[in-house]
Amino acid sequence: MNELEFNIRLYLTGVMKSWTDRINNTDQLTPQRFIFNAMTELFDSLSDDDLELIRLRYMERLTLSEVASRYLLNEHTIRNHTNPTIKQVKEIIKQGNELSIK
Q: pTM for the complete prediction?
């Protein structure tokens, strides 16, 4: 499991929230809290359908082909709906990792 999938799974299962709450219960912005806050903002902005596509890909580990056939859509359509979010999650993780280096 790569870092992207790991973070998405942690977030969608609620584990990330409990970990960030335990790590630091002050108002200080830790790298983990930054990632959690940014992912919350991103995922809250998604439509229910787009969030479901992310869940299918990263929680149920369905391939693009499997997701596309489930919704009777083209794989390209699935990519168009999920790739912008995935790129943003990668950037969030990168920024969080940069915070931990400082």
A: 0.86
1-19 pLDDT tens trace: 899 999 999 999 999 988 8
The candidate with the shortest Cα–Cα distance to 82, out of 50, 55, 40, is: 50
Helix, strand, or coil here: 22?
helix
Separation CA 38–CA 85 (nearest Å) = 12
Instruction: Please tell me whether residue 37 adopts helix, strand or coil conformation.
Output: helix
By the 8 A CB rule, do 89 and 4 touch?
yes
What number of other Cβ atoms are within 10 A of residue 90's Cβ? Answer: 13
CA 60 to chain centre: 14
Residue 55 contacts residue 12 (beta carbons within 8 Å): yes
Q: List alpha helices for the chain, DSSP H.
A: 3-13, 15-23, 31-44, 48-58, 64-71, 75-101
Give me the long-range contacts of 71-77 (CB less than 8 A, separation at least 24). none
> Distances from the Cα of 33 to the Cαs of 10, 25, 44, in angstroms?
13, 10, 16
